[in-house]
Amino acid sequence: MFDRILIANRGEIAVRIIRACRELNIKTVAVYSEADRSSMHVQMADDAVCIGPAASGESYLRIDRLIQAAQHSQADAIHPGYGFLSENAKFAASCIENGIQFIGPSAVTMDALEDKAVSRQLAKSAKVPIPPGSVGAVESKEEALRIAQEIGYPVMIKAVSGGGGRGMRVVHNDISLINAFNTARAEAEKCFGNSSVYVEKFIENPHHIEIQILGDSKGNIIHLGERDCSIQRRNQKLIEESPSPFLDEKKFKHLRKKIAQSAVELAQEAKYTNAGTVEFIVDGNGEYYFLEVNKRIQVEHPVTEQTTGHDIVKLQIQLAAGEPLGIRQRDIRSTGHAIECRINAEDPFNDFRPSPGMVEMLYTPGGRGIRFESHVYAGYNIPPHYDSMIGKLVSYGGDRNEAITIMSRALTEFLIKGVKTTVPFQMAILENPDFRRGVYTTGFVENYLNSAAQAPLQKPTI
Ligand code: ADP
Ligand code: ADP
Ligand code: MG
User: Fold this and answer.
1) 18, 133, 312, 445: most buried by Cβ count inside 10 Å?
2) What is the topology classification, in CATH, of domain 132-201?
3) What pLDDT is recorded for position 461?
4) What mean pLDDT, rounded, does the chain reach?
5) 165 φ, ψ to 5°?
6) Fold of 4-103
7) CB of 208 closer than 6 A to ligand 2?
8) Ligand 2 center from residue 279 Cα (angstroms)
9) Could you identify the atom of ligand 2 that is nearest to the CA of residue 166?
10) How open is the CA angle 47-52-57, to the nearest 5 degrees?
11) How far apart are the first and last CA of the chain?
């Protein structure tokens, strides 16, 4: 087992990883930018190294400085968390070249799955359904037009390196496709440093269903069931749950099992090791299509931990250390129901504008069935430079109704002064009759925001 792990990340996920390391009796090294000097992960870790100025490009994205920090602090492994360099094959390769274990899939697998258009081809060879669209990247407007006409509008132009819900746009006809093509490429270059795009059929009103997988170095691959992440704003998840209320056994016999099986087959084709997530969209008829593989820990992994009882971050570390998967597929039991709300420092009353700044006061929910993952504390100054997520509130109940009741109760207890959060919006969604019935698609939030008939948002009651 490793002696010392460097965590190449910040925020709640850095804290989450430190907790897993502590329980495994492994020392931790935090890295931080100048803007994160007073961040919780720096205080919690055994050791901490400053890796540069606030801008991520000068700190959390600097492979050279991270490797130097690991060498300097004698870390024998690096956990990349999510976002930043977590899915960067060059980073994984650099770690290995420098004798540091990368906690994630092999650099070869990362490389094979780095490009979303290339992953589509891999899915195809594993006989996993993909949305109709281009084979690989699309280089010219003419080619994009030809494909769009072949598969029929609407289509999506997507950046091969896109992530975090950015780098994709829907087009409905030839003219908008021609207009959008160059802008999409320019945006992809600006956001992801890679202008390559591909074209796929836009599936209307789909459900986002994803499968958590785990693989060891002996080629054993298992799955821990699905998560439904269809409550999204601008293609970015806001609320996630497991199991999915859409995958009703009576309506779609064996569909849950089929999707999970497809995820495992794709992972086998990619010789996948460590933890990963295979994302799908599913239409109203139960047809499902592969979207992408997230080659890292996922933001919403706690809902799966609550329903299966397995600690996915600990498993990541054990698998990276070469331990075999101690669990067989038939040992996996999913019980009860878990829901996660991503709490962002954004103002839902003002078009979700980021709301960084000083946290003057904080009371976080607790009680039966509640788990709260966060790096925020009273007196902490939320820097404006990074992601707006400040915490994840997870509820667990015997069934979906109980998980909703617990979540609604807990959201009313969340009290923060100094910054605005998405909590009032999530409280409103939890009250929505369609959400309560489990009848929603990825269009839910947009429809909700467009509907004037909705009740005004309520502030927390405490
Ligand atoms: P998940 O699928 O785990 O919910 P997201 O796609 O929402 O993950 O991304 C998790 C975090 O990583 C977010 O902070 C997001 O902004 C960031 N992220 C993911 N992919 C990229 C990328 N390619 N470039 C920049 N940031 C990214
Ligand atoms: P990211 O890397 O940003 O997570 P994904 O490809 O996983 O990008 O897509 C994110 C979300 O965008 C999906 O959950 C879904 O809501 C929407 N989306 C992506 N591709 C399609 C598609 N072909 N049809 C409909 N919605 C899509
Ligand atoms: Mg995705």
Assistant:
1) 18
2) Dna Ligase; domain 1 (3.30.1490)
3) 56
4) 96
5) 75, 5
6) Rossmann fold (3.40.50)
7) yes
8) 9
9) 3
10) 125
11) 46
Catalytic positions, please? 296
Nearest CA to ligand 1 atom 26: 83
Residue with tokens 């709300």: 341
CA distance 330 to 237: 30
Name the token pair of 57.
């490009």
Separation of alpha carbons 215 and 319, rounded Å:
8
What's the pLDDT tens digit per position in 63-74? Answer: 999 999 999 999
Q: Are 4-103 and 207-454 the same fold in CATH?
A: no
CA distance 144 to 127: 24
> Does the CB atom of residue 305 touch ligand 1 within 6 A?
no
Return the domain boundaries, the chain.
4-103, 132-201, 207-454
Query: What is the mean pLDDT of the segment spanning 215-243?
Result: 97
Instruction: Give the E-state strand segments of 142-301 in sequence order.
Output: 155-163, 166-171, 197-201, 207-215, 221-233, 236-242, 274-282, 288-294
Q: For atom 23 of ligand 2, which residue has the closest CA?
A: 202
Choose the residue to mutate in 82, 168, 209 for probing ligand 2, maximizing ligand atoms within 8 Å of C-beta. Answer: 168
- In angstroms, the CA 115 to CA 159 distance is 9
207-454: CATH topology: D-amino Acid Aminotransferase; Chain A, domain 1 (3.30.470)
Name the closest ligand to CA 60.
1
Q: Evaluate if residue 460 carries a pLDDT over 70.
A: no
Distance, in Å, from the CA atom of 148 to the CA atom of 154, rounded to the nearest integer, reads 8
- Which residue is listed with tokens 């804290």? 15
Helices (H), 194-331: 255-269, 301-308, 312-320
**Cβ of 388 less than 6 Å from ligand 1:** no
